[in-house]
C-alpha cells in the first residue's frame, strides 16, 4: 500500500495489516490477564474485549472504504469515511466506558 | 296416666302466661330514670323531652323539679305567649306547666283557648284533633274551665269517629294511606277529651260504637312465647313507624282515658290486661329515655285508672282491671341452708296489693311431670316485709328443677272485678343441695386374666394422691356412686376424666353411668378383641381399642389424672387431681400421628429473639495491586509507541497551513481529546446523564469543527486532483 495514496489521518490509523494484528495482540493480552486474575468484574473484562474487537472492526471498515482500488466505495470521499470512523469510535467508547463500571 | 295427662292439660290451659318471671318496678328503675334523664345546663332540651322526664319522675316519686324550673319556665311562657308556636309545642308547654306550675296570666290562657277552639272546628288531621283537644283539657285542669268547654261536642266526636276503620284502627287523615293502631290510641285519647269537655252530654250511641271499636282493637293483640301481649303496627311508612312499645303505650293511654270518662265497664278481659302489663314489665330497664317514659307512663295508667263516682262513700269504680304481679325474688333454693320459698304480690308500680292469700297449687319436677309433690298449700304472710312465704319445703322436694304453680286468692270477692290476678302463675324454681359421693375407687385391671393388680380407694370429698402404673395390656377403671340428700341416684351434667402427659398433651374422657354407679374403663389393647362386659354389668364402654393407644400418640410416661364432676343443682361440684399413672405404651410405628404441638407460652414471644448470623458469599479473589498496575502499564505502552510513531512518520504534511482551516483542524483534535477526557471522567466519577449532557455540547461543537476541517481538506484534494 502506498502511503502517499492515503490522506494523513488514515495513514497512522490504518497503516497496513499490522494494525489489525496489533489489536489482535491486545485482545489476546486481555484474555490472558483475565485468565490469570480471575473474571471477577466480568463486565470489565467484556468491555476490554469489546473495545479491542470493535476498534479493529472499525479500522478495517475504514481501510476498505478509503482504498481507491475498491470499486464499491468509489464515490465516497475519504474524509467522509474518516468522519464516520471517528463518530463510531466515539460512540463505541462511550458504551465501553459505561460498561466498564 | 290419662287422667293425669288430662289434668295437666287443664292446668296448663288455665295459666295464661307461661313460666316466666316478671318483677314490678323497683328502685333499679328509679336509678335508671335518673341516669337516662339527665338535665344538660339546667334543662332537658325540647318541651316533649322535658315533659317525659318530669312525668317519669312524678310517677316514680323522684324529686327533680326544682332544678330545672328556672330554665324551663321561661321557655314555657314564651311558647304559650307566642302566636307562631305549633300545636305540638303548645300542647307540651301546657303539659310541662301542669307539672311545674309556672306563673302564666289568665289572658294568655284565654288567647290560647280561643285559638284552639277555632282550630278544633276546622281540623281534619287526627294529630291536630289530638293536640288541640288535649291542650283544651289541660287548660281546663289548670283552672280555666270556662274557656275550654266545647260547644259542638257531638260534631267533633263524629269528625274524629269518621276516621276510624272497621277493624278498630284509625287513619291519620281522611285521605291518608293506611290506618294504624297507634292512631287508634291517639284517637281514643282525643275522644275522651271531647267527652270530658262537652258542655252537653255526648250521644251515648256513639260512645257505644267506640266501645265496640275498642273490643275489635283488642282482637288484634299479638303475643310472645312467654305469654305477654302487645300491639304492633305493620310497617307502612318507615319514617313514621312506631315501635311495638310506643304503639302499645298509646293504646293503653287511650283506653284508660276513655274508660275514665265513660260510665259502665269496657268488658275487657282482666287476663289480657294482665298480660299487657307483663309485656311492659318484661322489658326490664329500657335503654332509651323515650322507652322508659312509655313503659312507666303506661304502667301508671293501668294502676291508676280509677274514677271517683261517689266521694262521700269512698267508693272507687275501676274501669280497666288493675293488674297484680306475683314475683319470686329468689328462684334458687338451697336444701343445705334450709332456704324458705318467698313470694311477693304487688301492683305494677311496686305498691302494696289488697289483702290476699297465695296458694301453692301444684309443683312438678321439670323432668317428670307425672306426680305433683305438693297439693294446695297456703303460704303464710309476713306483714312487716309484705312477703308470702312457705314454712319449710315439703319433705319430698329433692335436688333438681321444678315448676311451681301459684294462685292468688283475694280476700274480698268484690275485688275480683277490680284486680286482674291471672289464674295460675308458673314459676321455675331450682333446688340445690349437697351430693354424697362414695364408693369411689380406682383400679388397674389385668385384661387377660381379669385379676386386679392395683386397687386404691378414693375419698372424693377430700384430697387424693394415688400413684399407679400400667402398660398397654391393662385396663384402668374408675368408679364412684352419687346420691342426693333423699337417697336417689343423681346424674350430673358433667363428669370428665382428664389424663395429662408431662408434655402437656391432654386426653379427656366422659364418664358413663348406669343407675347410681359411674364407671369409666380405659382399655388399651392392640388386638381388636372385645373383652368388655365380662367383669361387671354396670359400666358402659365403647372405646376403639386400637384407637386408644393411637389416641395417646404412643406417648409413654407419667400422666396426671384429673376428675371433674359438676351440675347446676350440685353445691359441691369439684375438679380434683387424683394423682398420676405411669403408662408404658409400645413404640410408635413409622406412620403414627405425632402429638399436636402444644401452645407456646405467649409471653415468650415478647422476649429478645435469637441472634441471626448472616452468611455472606466469599468475596472474589482480586489480583494483587502490583499486578494490576503492571498490566495497566503494559496496555499504555502501545499508546506511547503510537505517539512516537506519529512524530517519526512525519505524517503531518497534509496539515493545513493557512490560518482559518488550521484553527479548525486544531480545534477538531482538541475536540476529540476532550471527548476522550470526558469519558475518562465518566469512568472515574461522573454519571451517565451528566456525561450525556456534556457529550451533547461537545459533540455538536465537534461536528461543526470537524465538518469545516474535513471539507477544507476535501476541497484541497479535489483541487489537486483536478489540477
UniProtKB/TrEMBL annotation, chain A:
Keywords for the protein's UniProt record, in alphabetical order: Apoptosis, Endoplasmic reticulum, Membrane, Transmembrane, Transmembrane helix
PANTHER family in alphabetical order: DOLICHYL-DIPHOSPHOOLIGOSACCHARIDE--PROTEIN GLYCOSYLTRANSFERASE SUBUNIT DAD1
Matching Pfam families: DAD (PF02109)
Subunit: Component of the oligosaccharyltransferase (OST) complex.
Subcellular localization, as worded in the UniProt entry: Endoplasmic reticulum membrane
Name this protein carries in UniProt: Dolichyl-diphosphooligosaccharide--protein glycosyltransferase subunit DAD1
Free-text function comment from the UniProt entry: Subunit of the oligosaccharyl transferase (OST) complex that catalyzes the initial transfer of a defined glycan (Glc(3)Man(9)GlcNAc(2) in eukaryotes) from the lipid carrier dolichol-pyrophosphate to an asparagine residue within an Asn-X-Ser/Thr consensus motif in nascent polypeptide chains, the first step in protein N-glycosylation. N-glycosylation occurs cotranslationally and the complex associates with the Sec61 complex at the channel-forming translocon complex that mediates protein translocation across the endoplasmic reticulum (ER). All subunits are required for a maximal enzyme activity.
Tagged with keyword Transmembrane: yes
Transmembrane segments: 20-38, 44-62, 82-100
Involved pathway(s): Protein modification; protein glycosylation
InterPro entries documented for this protein: DAD/Ost2 (IPR003038)
GO biological process: protein N-linked glycosylation
Keyword Endoplasmic reticulum: yes
Predominant subcellular localization, coarse grouping: endoplasmic reticulum
Organism: Tetracentron sinense
Gene Ontology CC, one term: oligosaccharyltransferase complex
Membrane topology, from the record: Multi-pass membrane protein
From TrEMBL, chain B:
Pfam families reported in the protein's UniProt record: Ribophorin_II (PF05817), Ribophorin_II_2nd (PF23861), Ribophorin_II_3rd (PF23860), Ribophorin_II_C (PF25147)
One GO term describing the cellular component: oligosaccharyltransferase complex
UniProt keywords, alphabetically: Endoplasmic reticulum, Membrane, Signal, Transmembrane, Transmembrane helix
Key word Transmembrane helix present: yes
Spans traversing the lipid bilayer: 627-650, 662-682, 694-714
Domain Ribophorin II second: 325-431
Membrane-protein topology: Multi-pass membrane protein
Record domain Ribophorin II C-terminal: where: 616-715
Domain Ribophorin II third positions: 439-583
Compartment(s): Endoplasmic reticulum membrane
Keyword Transferase attached: no
Residue intervals of the Ribophorin II N-terminal domain: 25-303
Pathway terms, separated by semicolons: Protein modification; protein glycosylation
Record-level GO BP terms: protein N-linked glycosylation
Known partners and oligomeric status: Component of the oligosaccharyltransferase (OST) complex.
Family assignment from sequence similarity: Belongs to the SWP1 family.
General function of this protein: Subunit of the oligosaccharyl transferase (OST) complex that catalyzes the initial transfer of a defined glycan (Glc(3)Man(9)GlcNAc(2) in eukaryotes) from the lipid carrier dolichol-pyrophosphate to an asparagine residue within an Asn-X-Ser/Thr consensus motif in nascent polypeptide chains, the first step in protein N-glycosylation. N-glycosylation occurs cotranslationally and the complex associates with the Sec61 complex at the channel-forming translocon complex that mediates protein translocation across the endoplasmic reticulum (ER). All subunits are required for a maximal enzyme activity.
Protein name: Dolichyl-diphosphooligosaccharide--protein glycosyltransferase subunit 2
Organism lineage: Eukaryota, Viridiplantae, Streptophyta, Embryophyta, Tracheophyta
Amino acid at each position: 500500500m502506498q502511503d502517499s495514496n492515503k490522506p494523513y489521518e488514515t495513514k497512522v490509523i490504518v497503516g497496513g495489516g499490522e494494525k489489525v494484528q496489533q489489536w489482535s495482540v491486545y485482545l489476546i493480552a486481555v484474555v490472558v490477564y483475565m485468565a490469570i486474575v480471575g473474571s471477577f468484574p466480568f463486565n470489565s473484562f467484556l468491555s476490554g474485549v469489546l473495545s479491542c474487537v470493535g476498534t479493529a472492526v472499525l479500522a478495517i471498515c475504514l481501510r476498505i472504504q478509503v482504498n481507491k482500488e475498491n470499486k464499491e466505495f468509489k464515490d465516497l470521499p475519504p474524509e467522509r469515511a474518516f468522519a464516520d470512523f471517528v463518530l463510531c469510535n466515539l460512540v463505541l467508547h462511550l458504551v465501553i466506558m459505561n460498561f466498564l463500571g | 296416666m290419662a287422667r293425669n295427662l288430662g289434668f295437666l292439660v287443664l292446668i296448663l290451659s288455665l295459666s295464661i302466661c307461661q313460666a316466666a318471671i316478671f318483677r314490678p318496678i323497683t328502685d333499679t328503675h328509679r336509678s335508671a330514670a335518673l341516669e337516662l334523664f339527665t338535665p344538660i345546663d339546667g334543662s332537658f332540651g325540647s318541651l316533649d323531652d322535658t315533659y317525659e322526664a318530669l312525668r317519669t319522675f312524678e310517677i316514680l316519686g323522684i324529686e327533680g323539679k326544682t332544678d330545672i324550673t328556672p330554665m324551663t319556665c321561661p321557655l314555657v311562657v314564651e311558647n304559650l305567649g307566642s302566636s307562631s308556636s305549633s300545636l305540638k309545642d303548645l300542647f307540651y308547654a301546657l303539659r310541662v306547666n301542669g307539672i311545674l306550675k309556672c306563673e302564666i296570666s289568665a289572658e294568655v290562657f284565654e288567647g290560647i283557648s280561643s285559638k284552639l277552639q277555632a282550630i278544633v272546628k276546622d281540623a281534619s288531621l287526627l294529630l291536630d284533633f289530638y293536640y288541640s283537644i288535649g291542650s283544651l283539657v289541660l287548660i281546663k285542669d289548670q283552672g280555666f274551665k270556662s274557656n275550654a268547654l266545647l260547644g259542638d261536642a257531638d260534631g267533633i266526636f263524629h269528625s274524629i269517629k269518621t276516621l276510624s276503620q272497621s277493624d278498630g284502627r284509625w287513619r291519620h287523615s281522611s285521605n291518608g294511606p293506611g290506618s294504624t293502631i297507634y292512631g287508634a290510641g291517639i284517637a281514643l285519647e282525643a275522644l275522651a277529651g271531647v267527652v270530658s269537655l262537652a258542655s252537653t252530654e255526648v250521644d251515648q250511641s256513639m260512645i257505644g260504637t267506640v266501645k265496640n271499636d275498642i273490643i275489635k282493637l283488642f282482637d288484634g293483640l299479638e303475643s310472645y312465647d312467654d305469654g305477654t301481649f302487645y300491639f304492633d303496627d305493620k310497617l307502612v311508612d318507615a319514617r313514621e313507624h312506631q315501635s311495638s312499645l310506643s304503639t302499645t303505650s298509646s293504646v293503653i293511654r287511650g283506653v284508660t282515658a276513655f274508660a275514665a270518662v265513660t260510665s259502665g265497664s269496657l268488658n275487657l278481659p282482666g287476663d289480657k290486661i294482665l298480660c299487657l302489663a307483663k309485656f311492659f314489665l318484661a322489658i326490664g330497664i329500657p335503654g332509651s329515655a323515650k322507652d322508659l317514659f312509655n313503659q312507666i307512663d303506661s304502667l301508671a295508667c293501668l294502676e291508676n285508672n280509677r274514677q271517683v263516682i261517689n266521694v262521700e262513700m269512698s267508693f272507687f269504680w275501676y274501669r280497666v282491671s288493675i293488674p297484680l304481679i306475683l314475683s319470686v325474688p329468689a328462684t334458687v333454693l338451697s336444701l343445705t341452708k334450709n332456704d324458705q320459698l318467698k313470694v311477693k304480690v304487688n301492683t305494677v308500680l311496686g305498691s302494696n296489693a289488697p289483702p290476699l292469700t297465695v296458694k301453692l297449687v301444684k309443683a312438678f319436677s321439670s323432668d317428670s311431670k307425672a306426680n305433683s309433690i305438693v297439693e294446695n298449700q297456703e303460704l303464710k304472710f309476713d306483714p312487716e316485709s309484705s312477703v308470702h312465704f312457705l314454712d319449710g319445703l315439703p319433705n319430698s322436694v329433692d335436688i333438681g328443677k321444678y315448676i311451681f304453680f301459684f294462685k292468688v286468692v283475694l280476700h274480698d270477692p268484690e275485688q275480683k272485678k277490680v284486680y286482674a290476678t291471672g289464674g295460675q302463675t308458673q314459676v321455675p324454681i331450682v333446688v340445690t343441695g349437697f351430693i354424697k359421693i362414695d364408693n369411689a375407687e380406682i383400679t388397674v385391671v389385668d385384661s387377660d386374666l381379669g385379676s386386679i393388680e392395683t386397687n386404691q380407694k378414693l375419698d372424693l370429698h377430700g384430697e387424693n394422691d394415688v400413684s399407679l402404673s400400667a402398660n398397654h395390656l391393662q385396663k384402668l377403671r374408675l368408679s364412684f356412686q352419687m346420691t342426693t340428700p333423699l337417697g336417689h341416684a343423681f346424674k350430673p351434667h358433667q363428669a370428665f376424666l382428664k389424663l395429662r402427659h408431662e408434655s402437656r398433651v391432654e386426653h379427656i374422657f366422659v364418664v358413663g353411668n348406669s343407675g347410681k354407679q359411674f364407671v369409666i374403663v380405659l382399655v388399651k389393647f392392640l388386638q381388636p378383641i372385645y373383652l368388655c362386659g365380662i367383669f361387671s354389668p354396670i359400666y358402659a364402654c365403647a372405646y376403639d381399642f386400637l384407637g386408644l393407644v393411637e389416641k395417646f400418640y404412643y406417648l409413654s410416661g407419667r400422666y396426671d389424672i384429673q376428675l371433674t364432676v359438676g351440675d347446676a343443682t350440685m353445691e359441691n361440684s369439684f375438679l380434683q387431681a387424683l394423682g398420676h399413672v405411669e403408662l408404658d405404651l409400645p413404640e410408635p410405628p413409622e406412620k403414627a400421628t405425632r402429638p399436636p404441638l402444644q401452645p407456646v407460652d405467649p409471653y415468650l414471644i415478647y422476649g429478645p429473639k435469637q441472634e441471626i448470623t448472616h452468611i455472606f458469599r466469599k468475596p472474589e479473589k482480586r489480583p494483587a495491586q502490583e499486578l494490576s498496575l503492571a498490566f495497566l502499564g503494559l496496555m499504555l505502552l502501545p499508546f506511547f509507541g503510537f505517539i512516537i510513531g506519529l512524530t517519526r512518520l512525519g505524517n503531518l504534511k497534509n496539515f493545513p497551513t493557512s490560518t482559518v482551516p488550521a484553527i479548525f483542524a486544531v480545534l477538531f483534535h482538541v475536540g476529540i481529546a476532550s471527548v476522550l477526557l470526558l469519558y475518562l471522567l465518566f469512568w472515574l466519577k461522573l454519571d451517565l446523564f451528566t456525561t450525556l449532557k456534556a457529550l451533547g455540547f461537545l459533540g455538536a461543537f465537534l461536528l461543526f469543527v470537524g465538518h469545516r476541517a474535513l471539507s477544507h481538506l476535501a476541497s484541497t484534494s479535489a483541487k489537486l486532483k483536478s489540477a
